[in-house]
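Self-study notes.
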Amino acid sequence: MYKKRQIALGILAFIIFCTLFAFTRHLRRPPASIMQDAFQLLLYLFLFVVEGLVLYIALRKRK
């Protein structure tokens, strides 16, 4: 059980770092259209919320 949890947290950390890397690359490029940028920022926000919820569920202690 402990080994599976460590592997899952490692994979989740890798996904979070990849999302952060993509987000920083998005911020460094020149802006396209307002709608496209707004949609992409909402997509990144959604990804961060989902990853945060998965991390919370993975780290919460069970009774």
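Second protein, same conventions, sequence then structure:
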Amino acid sequence: MEGTKDFMVADLIDEGGREWVMELLEELFTSHEVDTIAAIPLSLRNSDDRLVWHYDRKGIYSVKSGYYIFHKAQTVRDCASGSMGEGGAWRRYWHMLWSASVPPKVKLFMWKLIKGILPTKCNLVQKKVSLPDEKCTFCMAACESGTHLFKDCPTLLCFWLYGPLHLNPVEHPAKTLSSWTLDMLDILSVDQCDFFFMGLWAVWFERNKMVWKNDAFQPLMLIEWAVRHLVEFQKYHPKAVRKKKQAPMKWQCSPRGRLKINVDGAFRADVGCGGIGVVVRDDVGMGIAALARPFLHAHSVLNMEAEACRAGLLLGIHQGWSDIEIESDSAILVAALNSGEKNFSQDVIYEDYCNSTYVARDSGYMSPRCKF
């Protein structure tokens, strides 16, 4: 586009309404970039430019936040390289395993499976153990490696297809058992991972019965047995849920002669939009004023909570109300207002001087308190 070489960010902002000039944004940037830029809230004042570290909630760089980003990048590299170390991406996988709602023996089995140390026929032969053959216990065709036994064996395909997960591991492009297993952990939900672990263990359990007891393989019965075994374990070993008890709170009228402004914000992450609402009541709870406004571009719940609080403040100022208090249910926003610390994040876009107190969402109302 001609004539944009010397364009500045300020040229994209309507100084009168302090809003982004959408026509220019749509002409200069892609639709995704437009949505991202338009979601950046603007101050109503011409404040000085400053550097913001967007990896930190407050927008301020610290050694701690820098180390966190470095560690996160290292995790991505470890995952891409398939490193079997204890750190990086593997730390997350081990946490998923050890916190799974399955019997301890299943967790130990999965640890051996991922480490590649299960005594499959191929592994035993590599350890110089003499065996009659190396063929798979189920199909009696290919060599019984971990990858073949749990993923590629055609005899076991019906177990995975007709099980609760409806998997077709044969078509998965992974060449190793560990890479397939970790891919499944990335795809499956927590509950699905529980059965995935149980299913792998059930296959191994059935394999051992066939080796030592010459049992016949019945895939549908194995599915039923694995599901029942998991359900029974989870029934008698429920996950501990810690729920913090909080005393119910009710909305209260403001002190005599003072107006109370309740503000709230909403955000839809799926479409990147939001909205705000403001309600004003007098000291006996009678409605005085109200407003609501949609935001076609937003980037977080806190962003909308901050916009709602600002709208409440501006309403009070424009109406000339001399004694008001504002309530919000956003504990993070209230803490930011009360802290007195510098906060350069995009979410807290105003620096008004006010004292704030937090009221729980259970009350149905909110709470920074600002007295003018």
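Instructor comment on the second fold: Residues 190-213 form the longest helix (24 residues).
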